[in-house]
Amino acid sequence: MARKPKAQEKEEEEASTSSSEHEAMDHDSDDEEQNDDGSEDESDDGSEDDDGSEDDEEVDDEEEEQSTEMPAAAGNTESSNFALADLTSFNTHQINPSQLYSSSSTSSNTHYTSATISTPIAINEDYLLNKAIGGTKQLLKELWKCPADRVDGGFMVAKLPGRSKADGYVLPRMLPPPPQKQLTKWEKFALERGISPKSKKSRKQFDEATGEWKHLTGSLQNKANAGPESWPILEVKKNDDPNQNPWEKLREEKKARTNKNTTNRMKNAESAGLLEKGSANRMTKQLKKMEKQRTLSREHERQQGIIAPAGVPVDMMKSTDGKRGKPSIQLALKATQVSTASLGKFDKMREGEPERKLENQSKKRKLLLEKSAEQEKSRDILTKVMNGSKEKDRDVKKGKYAKGETAYDYDYDDGLGAGSFRKKKGRAGVGKMRKITKKRIK
Amino acid sequence: MAPTPHQAKTAKAKLISGGKQPKARIARYLKTQEPQLVEGAKAALLLKGIKCSDSMATVLKDLRSVLSPHAKLLTKSNQIVAFDDAGTQSLEFLTTKNDAALFAMASHNKKRPNNLILGRTFDRRVLDMVELGILQYRSINDFPGLPKKRLGSKPLLHFVGDLWSSDHNLKSLQNLLIDFYRGDPVDSLVLSGLDHVMVFTAAEHSIGGATAEPIVHQRTYFMKLKKDPQGGKAPAPYLTPSGPDMDFKLRRTQFASPDLWKLATKQPTTNKTKKKKNQTTNLFGETLGRLHLEKQNIDAKSGKKSKALRLAERAEKEEDRAATESELQQEMGEMEQEFQQTYGFSRNDIA
Prior knowledge:
The complex is a heterodimer of chains A (442) and B (351). Chain A is built from 11 helices and 6 strands. Chain A is mainly alpha-helical and 442 residues long. In chain A, a hairpin with a 4-residue loop joins strand 5 (204-207) and strand 6 (212-215). In chain A, helix 7 packs antiparallel against helix 8 (279-304). Chain B is α+β, with helices and mostly antiparallel strands and 351 residues long. Chain B has a domain at 41-256: Rossmann fold, CATH 3.40.50. In chain B, the strands form 2 sheets. In chain B, strands 1, 2, 3, 4, 5, 6, 8, 9, 10 and 11 form a 10-stranded mixed sheet that branches. A two-stranded antiparallel ribbon of chain B has the order 12-13.
């Protein structure tokens, strides 16, 4: 064989695994293989049987010289199909079972001495090896055809082709593909108007007042550049009501902002399909209801005099005549009365103590005096249980009755019940689980 | 098993509406558990069945060596009968909790000796399951002193025989084996780092006079790449046997129904590689672009006016007002004069 130009040689050297220790051996084996190649080439295009037998001889020769070498020209010329994305190749030619299951005579199976699980079937390992060599050769040839780039460190990185139908198989995913990201309402608007997104702010800002680095969000105390709202004194501005508590006002405003944010986020998530339909509206209503309750209770407390309206001196309040504290004390007493383990049932009553009442004790139930009404009610319940009701079906569909089915439910039974746990050693683990076997006579 | 869609949605609603937010570290972990556009390597869960012999335990240990770092070996035996509903549920639970998409369960009993169940999941539910009866097994330890593959290296996979395409069970098994052994799915690879080949040969053989059934011979060879003496860019492979080698036959199978398979192989709608449009390079090497402007609806969306325009408008308004004012003043003056002329005194004197 003619000497290849140095450049080509260098390329090939890079392609093979570089290990200087085998350098000497490489040269030796190359020479020998060149000699052997000459004799092999003529008979290479023969039938498979010929290949096999000749390869055996080849292997013998090689074995004697080196321990880890194998014939270079061995392997069949059966063409394979390739799926390079997964480094896979398929040799769809028929196998010769008689060859495969013949007992191997040569000493090439020196490696196959011990086996963890043995079988009586005789397998010709050389046959398998030859098929492997042939297939691997072709696969490597295909792989080296892929375009390669040089990367830092001197490595050649080959770009593997993508997957295609021609591969012959498709591998399933782990999870279904994620839903496409929907644009939120603001993002749509920004796209339309051509508003570029805001530049990112750093996590902490230097607070001028305290001279510390603080977060941008947080309570008025811990916020950076909190402004006049965080000071102990707040001025009454032109449009403000002097009788309103300004901190209360600020808190209400903040609550309104957060509620708006919540509802908007929920609306966006709902339109993206991440939430149940109608959940955003329900949340809005819930928040409004809570706000209403809050204002009502605040008014009620203010009227009762529990909370003094800010900005007005206590003695000037007309409504309570100086009894501002009493209603609050009464409420406190009411709470304390039932704050024991037995809910105040067995505690000694003090002088002048009002009666102890635990709220929400009695569940209001409609008194059905007529027999027919009661019967009808029972019958309704029975039909619902037997025939199913629309509400129950709806809930089942939603997954409300899926308790115990998922690992996220507390009562999940994964089949590895408590009964399966037992100590392996000692008589403590012996229970009903022990298999009853015949006792050996010692 | 994962939370039902309803449970997931209610949890999300609770989170958005100010529920307890998870810690940042946990949030990052949860994000990795969400469905990804491009998926990474599948992790394998290796576990023991009801009773496992020592040799089957070595099978699992070798699997762990081959598949690591994407393999997790559980040491305790599990009371799982895989092909039962309860067993399937247990497997789904264990694979979900251990974040594994593949599983291998080894067991040994008189009826099914040297049993290995390979399986994979989709969407946290079992997709395929194959029960293999191992006839011969050579572990990595049965090849002492010989070179072995590196940790985490990708194998070359080679399937030999026409049975892989003719037998439908073997076809599905082939898919499962590729999924099991391929490792990290990558776009590019340093080819000099390839160091082992896995060859799966399927042949029909009658064991002990029974009817011929397909047997699969799995062989793993350590591969050394050397420059090809016959020339050519590609190197010549030098294969030496390294473990693990396995000969097995198929026992029971439970492959995915066509509907489920279709769902599982559904790929995300990716944007195809777009050709660069509206760009041309001329002879001089200059790249010219082409702009296509849409019809701009000026009337609908009005933008913010510039400061100068606003000031100009304001000034105009002022001017107009001043002009009208001066006109009015003039008129008033004229009227006054007329009044004076006709009546002899001015209007101001009356009021």
